[in-house]
Design a protein that fits this description.
Chain lengths: 95, 95, 95, 95, 95, 95, 95
């Protein structure tokens, strides 16, 4: 089963942040930084502009992205958890 | 009796989510995931853009879609329950 | 006396929902479903688009429509009760 | 003394609603229906659209109109009470 | 010293409303009607429309205008009190 | 050190209002009139309009302007206090 | 690891404000001025305008900028703290 996001939405699989600090100390869950990291697994075809043309997304499948920890809607597809969010919820692409 | 949704609205029949986890354990209602699943049974003709052209919907009758659990307005047609919502409430199409 | 709604407004006469369930049992008022049903008795000439052209309404006089129970403003014309609402308050046309 | 409303504003003289029901029974003030009735005594020249053209009003001086009871701003001109409101506050024209 | 209002702003000198009723009875301050009256002493050059052209104001210096009692910002220029408001706060021109 | 405001922002140096009334009586701080006066020390290059052209500011460096007392963000540059605000926060130019 | 901000977002590294006053007295943290200072380390490719063209950013990598103390979202990249914000959160460029 696949999920095709509509318009400018993307489907993101959360990447577990490492719970170790630079010095290797494991920190409890509540101390982790705010933005979350994920991998894009599906993208929509883009929104329409005023002239009826699709606005291509700036992100693509496979991109690793940062996004606000509370962005998107959680969905479960075949037991796996994903997030559906709008491209505008993405803060940046990790290169 | 049929219902023709206006503009960019769609008529959706909720698909009951299976209340079993992957391992086959039945979970109570409150533990189910947030987004709901449904089948589109009717679609509007689309909104007008600034130049007076209809913007075709990205979804069509028969599509299985995910949407926020509290999206749309419940309607009862001949004893059957449906939801009328805007296309923008649809998170994605299940393929 | 008649009332000509302005712009994209419509004049709707509420159709009393049958207070019987499919099985014929009369249900009290508070148990009725949310959206209300009505018949359109007058329509406006439509809003102007950006180029100064009227946007024709998608509904017409005689259409039976569903709308949110709390949509519109109640008016009394010659002792009869009507609702004035915007076309956008109409959820769908019953066919 | 006259008042020329600006843009899409209109000057309305409230018409006292008859406080008798169809059957001739006088009802107290608080039981009257919500929308109010009035006669248009002056209209503005219309708003400008995006291309700098005036958008003609749909209502004209002399029209009897229905409007929300709390629409507009009360003004007193030579001892007479009027309401200044935007055309969009008018629900419909009584014909 | 003069003040040149920016864009679609106007400089208005409040005209004291006569505190006598038609019959000549002096009424206390709190009983005065809501909108205030003033004389325009300076106008801005107008806002820019989407094509970069100035939108001429509908009011001009010398116009007597009605405006909401709480519209605008009070300024004191050489001991005199004025109000700076947007043209849109003007309800109508007194002729 | 200089600060170049972005877009339609301006850098303003507050001019202390004289705390004497016309008659020469010194009034305490809380009794001063609302809008504040300042001198523009830097201006941005203007916002872009829909066609990608810069909209020139109506104010320029050296203008003495009135603005709402709580407009803008305070910044300290080399020990001096300034305000960064948008041109739209300026009520008028003192000539 | 690098982070490429999307659209009109920028990646900023905060510059610690000197906690000494002009006279050399160290002031506690809560007494520091409101806007914060930072250096831009990455910029997005700009938003699309209505015609589908990218709007170039007014800031560039290396610029020292002022921004509101609570602007942006904190991110940690390889142990270093940064802020992702929109260009519009930048108050001005320090020259």
């Amino acid at each position: 089963m696949n999920l095709k996001p509509l318009q400018d939405r993307i489907l993101v699989q959360r990447v577990e942040e490492e719970t170790k600090t630079k010095g290797g100390i494991i920190i409890p869950d509540t101390a982790k930084e705010k933005p979350a990291e994920g991998k894009i697994v599906a993208v929509g075809i883009g929104k329409l502009d005023k002239d009826g043309n699709r606005i291509a997304l700036e992100v693509k499948v496979g991109d690793r992205v940062l996004f606000g920890k509370y962005s998107g809607t959680e969905v479960k597809i075949e037991g796996e958890e994903y997030l559906i969010m709008r491209e505008d919820d993405v803060l940046g692409i990790i290169e």
